[in-house]
UniProtKB/TrEMBL annotation:
This is 3-isopropylmalate dehydrogenase. Binds 1 Mg(2+) or Mn(2+) ion per subunit. Its EC number is 1.1.1.85. The lineage of its organism: Bacteria, Pseudomonadati, Pseudomonadota, Alphaproteobacteria, Rhodobacterales. GO terms for biological process: L-leucine biosynthetic process. HAMAP family: LeuB_type1 (MF_01033). Substrate binds at R96, R106, R134, D225. Its cofactor is Mg(2+); Mn(2+). Homodimer. Belongs to the isocitrate and isopropylmalate dehydrogenases family. LeuB type 1 subfamily. It comes from the Bacteria. Residues 4-360 form the Isopropylmalate dehydrogenase-like domain.
Amino acid sequence: ANPSLLILAGDGIGPEVMAEVKKIISWYGDKRGLAFDVSEDLVGGAAYDVHGVPLADATMAKAQEVDAVLLGAVGGPKYDVLDFSVKPERGLLRLRKEMDLYANLRPAQCFDALADFSSLKKDVVAGLDIMIVRELTSGVYFGTPRGITTQPDGSRVGINTQVYTTEEIRRVARSAFELARRRNNKVCSMEKANVMESGILWREEVQWVHDNEYPDVELSHMYADNGAMQLVRRPKQFDVIVTDNLFGDVLSDCAAMLTGSLGMLPSASLGAPMANGRPKAMYEPVHGSAPDIAGQGKANPIACILSFAMALRYSFDQGDEATRLEKAIETVLADGVRTADLMGPEGGQPVSTTEMGDKILA
Ligand code: NAI
Ligand code: MG
């Protein structure tokens, strides 16, 4: 059977950028003998408009069955007034939670043609290719006790608790080591073991997984504050970085800006291996639904296309085809083809979403 893919294009520019990915998926079937069983469904505001919820149960069930989910973006001003329980983002959160996608992969990859776009010096970022693995389902965003309480003297206390279990740390560490074996065999784990108990456990458990299961991978540990500094100072020293939910949130946004535009950033969220050995997986661009440019043909489809390239590599064992796709993007950028978000101050004539997709295909 062909590998299966569920496409949830979502709202705003989601369907616009996804249309370009669909062209590429068809191309793989026609030209490379790599056919996918593609189904499509609604998520976010689009699902709310039809079903009154941002993710229908039937869609959730489908997501659990396929080899990978490819998501566009959700949300928009039209839905800002909705009750929290049916907001578009809840559709995304439900997918992540019920598929138990605990490892969030955020690559920071710098295409040479865009090195000038970085906030850093060109030689610091040219050729950069690192991957941050952020624990996504536990840690301080979820730990209890939590809440705001009022003291007898009237002052208030805000409480969040960082909780990590052995298994939560080990499983995300395994995701990072597996990735490292497909890349450059190097993992740096970041925490604050100097001041946090959960940090001590994190360091010990990552080391345990390394010593017992992945002794062939080079492992180092770094305090997360130093990690932030090193990411900006000399990012090319890293390959795979694994870290907790909170530090990962901050460090991945920081790393993202090493490479320039939001329109270029893909991501993957992986869970436990399924019966066929593939991890549960959802791939999506980092950007949102961009209501300010939606419906105008201005959106950059590259983040979504690169998300599909990650699916090729991490769900479908098609690393060479993923590289082919990334090379096509690099070539097009080197030729000076730019969507509006990639135009420098020197200006020029931007191409549309569709034209960018077509150039990459060509
Ligand atoms: P956003 O990522 O949608 O847009 C931020 C800025 O970047 C805008 O100026 C937009 O035009 C630009 N931009 C984003 N993607 C682009 C692309 N592919 N090509 C060219 N320019 C691009 O974030 P914002 O404005 O904070 O949120 C807009 C809506 O998206 C909100 O409803 C928000 O809740 C939702 N959102 C959804 C996410 C998701 O589906 N994963 C993530 C972030 C926000
Ligand atoms: Mg963030």
